[in-house]
Amino acid sequence: MTGDGFLDEVTTHLLAAGGKRLRPVLALATATSGLGPASREDLLGAVAVELVHLASLYHDDVMDEATVRRNVESVNARFGNLVAIVAGDFLLARSAEIAAGLGTEIAGLLAATLGELCQGQVAEVHAAFQVTRSQDQYSTAISGKTASLMATSCRIGALTGGLSRDQVEAFTSFGRSFGMIFQVRDDILDVIGTEAELGKPAGQDLAEGIYTLPVLLALDNPEVGPELRPLLGQPLGQPERDKARSIVAGSGAIADSVVVARRYAEQAADAARSGPSTQLATGFTRLAHSLVDDLPGG
Ligand code: GRG
């Protein structure tokens, strides 16, 4: 709390709305091998990563002109863009302050991750409406905008938990692969999910010109690419969005994207196995596979 009632209201708006708290869970599970108890340092590391995530949601919703986040009105919709941006900055400042108290390695790591988030986000914006976006460009962008903070969450947990250097590297690698699965899954669901399941309109990425893995795979497919390509490259109205979604969904691109997600899940499981605890390896492996298993053909 800041002592300023308005700033407190804005900065706690999304916190109070919930969220899965996935990044702190990764940090704390890594730090404690899922066995607890967590130390004060473990908890502060977990808070620092969630605050960076939260700040990124504040800024992302301004960029996307979002109206809903975590099933409540988004911060920009409720308080305006200017307040949302500065409140996001405030959350980042709080995270940096906490990280500084955890030492220079963690403070430097979080600052570098913030840079990666921005690079990933800029790469995505830059590629908007480009039907020539490559799968490598896609992977680099999602590694920055999503997987980097998951990797750092595990790494910070490994550091505060006092794991060996080899284990720090192994869990960082687990977090990176886990983040890749998470984003590929999200991108698959954007094509095949319903508004009720997603909590946001389906096909939103397609409509906004963000061509993700399933779309890029469909574009590369000689059977459906020629039908899909002319629809893309511009903002889509509802009928075109539905048509593009159904072309991608009916093309085999979803199954091929699930294969990619499964490959990341195997990498994640390999990394988790090098940790100090079989219990954590089992838990993390299940978590990674659970993101793939309920996808079609997963
Ligand atoms: C100011 C930190 C900062 C970054 C600026 C805006 C930006 C650059 C990056 C955007 C990064 C972003 C929002 C990526 C998407 C990550 C993602 C998968 C969000 C959803 O995560 P969940 O499902 O959300 O874990 P909950 O609500 O459960 O916490």
Extract low-pLDDT stretches: none
CATH homologous superfamily grouping: Farnesyl Diphosphate Synthase
Average residue-wise pLDDT: 95
Shape estimate: globular
**Which H/E pattern describes the elements?**
HHHEEHHHHHHHHHHHH
* Main sheet specs: 2 strands, antiparallel
Total DSSP E strands? 2
- How does the helix and strand content classify structurally? mainly alpha
Sheet with most strands: strand arrangement: 1-2
**Contiguous helical run count:** 15
CA-based gyration radius? 19 Å
Number of domains: 1
What is the name of the CATH class? Answer: Mainly Alpha
Helix content: over 70%
Beta-strand share of residues: under 5%
Q: Could you walk me through the main structural features you see in this protein, from its secondary elements to its overall organization?
A:
- The chain is mostly helical and 298 residues long.
- The protein has one domain: Farnesyl Diphosphate Synthase.
- The chain has helices spanning 5-17, 22-32, 40-64, 75-79, 81-101, 104-126, 135-160, 165-192, 195-198, 204-207, 213-220, 225-228, 238-249, 253-273, 278-293, and strands spanning 68-69, 72-73.
- Helix 2 (22-32) runs antiparallel to helix 3 (40-64), helix 2 (22-32) crosses helix 7 (135-160) and helix 5 runs antiparallel to helix 6.
- The chain is globular.
- Residues 19-20, 22, 52-53, 55-57, 59-60, 63, 70, 88, 92, 114, 117-118, 121, 145-146, 182-183, 186 line the site of geranylgeranyl diphosphate.
